[in-house]
Amino acid sequence: MRILIFGLSMTSAWGNGHATTFRGLTRALARRGHAVTFFERDVPWYAAHRDLPNPAWLRLHLYQRVDDLDTWRREIADADLVIVGSFVSDGAEVIERVLSLACGVRAFYDIDTPVTIHALERGTCEYVTRAQVGQFDIYWSFSGGPVLNRLARLGAANPRPLYCSVDPDEHRPVETTIVWALGYLGTYSADRQPALEEHLLAVARRETSVRFAVAGAQFPESIGWPDNVDRFEHLPPDAHRGFFSRQRFTLNLTRRSMMSEGYSPSVRLFEAAACGVPIVSDRWPGLDTFLAPGREILVTGSGEETRTIVREFPEAERRLIASRARLRVLGEHTALNRALELERDVALLARDTLADALRPRATG
């Protein structure tokens, strides 16, 4: 297929999880023989932090204004599949332009589904309108489970899960020395910060004989980091495997909006598992459909439980949990898995459209 994607970012993973997802998915699609073109709004905060300025497996177009998309009118019209992602700058205007031109399958890929749903219900969503939701042929969602029914009630014609994924070429175990008892990788989020305080910073203040680590952008300067917490402002994706491999455990924390809807695994969850580090996670609905608690992932309900895991968890069992999680993720949650799911969804949509066109019509 000729596939066009209008997404938040491909060139910079700074302060967002979209780039990692798009990179893995598009690379897998390219390996499957599809021709992929990615359109990214050229904004200063990503321009200053580009860690992949020229991806070799796709065509990349940076544009300044929505009107610039007129340059690619023919390309949009001729594409077999056009995808618009969530949180694109002036997204509603981009969607209006794309939907007016695209003749192939038109899809929305929501990498922020719970946030989108809440904004749509309040009438405050800036990157897609409620009227536009129903104009897509398929609505891919980063969240699954009951949220798909809510999308249908909002007008989505074919809501389907297309979860985040991991690229095994990028995320794999590294032979290195474990430095940190517990680490965390994630962009700052105000509604996630209390959990980070409870499960890592408070634990670090009590366990002063071992070291901890936090990596991620946009944390305010007002945060008081304990002396035994190593702080990294930003790690490019190719540094993630080294960061994870130096942790005895890694911490997975979920934003409240994602937790309330459930079935919303983060890309860091799959990355950590693929890197062979055991995960300590907060609890959310649907977690057990991705990794089995107690067998493939450890679930904590309090900072004290997290501290007990850090202090007392047996080493042999720690390694076994990490191994099980890695096998599970490499079997079910790679970028290739997602590319195949995307192909299947498009093929089923085309089949249903053809069957509908061939179905005999009643005559009066």
Describe the structure.
This protein is α/β, with parallel strands linked by helices. Helix content is 39%, strand content 17%. The chain has helices at residues 18-31, 44-47, 73-78, 91-101, 113-122, 130-133, 147-153, 193-206, 240-245, 256-261, 267-274, 303-312, 315-332, 335-358, and strands spanning 2-7, 35-41, 59-63, 81-85, 105-110, 138-141, 159-161, 180-185, 212-215, 229-232, 247-252, 279-281, 298-299. Strands 3-2-1-4-5-6-7 form a seven-stranded parallel beta sheet, with helices on both faces. Strands 10-9-8-11-12-13 form a six-stranded parallel beta sheet, sandwiched between helices. Helix 8 (193-206) packs across helix 12 and helix 11 (267-274) packs across helix 13 (315-332).
CATH fold naming of the largest domain:
Rossmann fold
Give the C-alpha Rg.
21 Å
Under CATH, the homologous superfamily of the largest domain reads Glycogen Phosphorylase B
Cα(first) to Cα(last) distance is 40 Å
- Indicate the proportion of strand residues: 15-25%
Tally of distinct domains: 2
- Element-by-element helix/strand order: EHEHEHEHEHHEHEEHEEHEHHEEHHH
